Amino acid sequence: MFIQLKYARGGFLPDLACLCDKYAFSYRMLEMVRSKMRLMGLIDHVSRFNRAYGYREGWVLSTSFSRALKRLAELA
Predict the structure, then answer these.
(1) Where in the sequence is the domain holding 65, given as residue range(s)?
(2) Closest by alpha carbon to 3, among 25, 56, 16?
(3) pTM of the predicted model, to two decimals?
(4) Which of 37, 65, 74, 76 keeps 20 to 30 A from 28, CA to CA?
C-alpha cells in the first residue's frame, strides 16, 4: 500500500480496494493495514471537499510523516 501511494500519479489514490485484486489479499486485511497506517500517521484520507486535490476523495501519504522523517534524518 505504501509503495502504491508513493508512486501513484500525483501521490493520490482514489480507492484502495483495487489493491486487493492486484495483490490477491482480502478486503478485511486491507482495512486492517489501512487503519494501522493511519493510526501511525503514514497516510491521510482526503475529503472530497479538499480543493488542493481537485475535490476528489482518496488517500495520500501524510505530510507530517515525511516531515518527521526529514527531522529524524537531520538528527542522525
Answers:
(1) 2-75
(2) 16
(3) 0.75
(4) 65
Q: Provide the number of structural domains found in the chain.
A: 1
CA 65 to chain centre: 11
Residues 3-46 have pLDDT tens digits of 888 888 888 888 888 888 888 889 999 999 989 989 888 889 89
- Measured CA to CA in angstroms, residue 54 lies from 17, 29, 50 at distances of 21, 29, 7
Q: 14 with 47: CB under 8 angstroms?
A: no
Q: Which amino acid is at 56?
A: R
Q: Which of 49, 61, 50, 67 is nearest to 10 (CA)?
A: 61
Q: In the chain, count of helices (H) and strands (E)?
A: 4, 3
* Alpha carbons within 13 A on the beta-carbon side of 24: 0
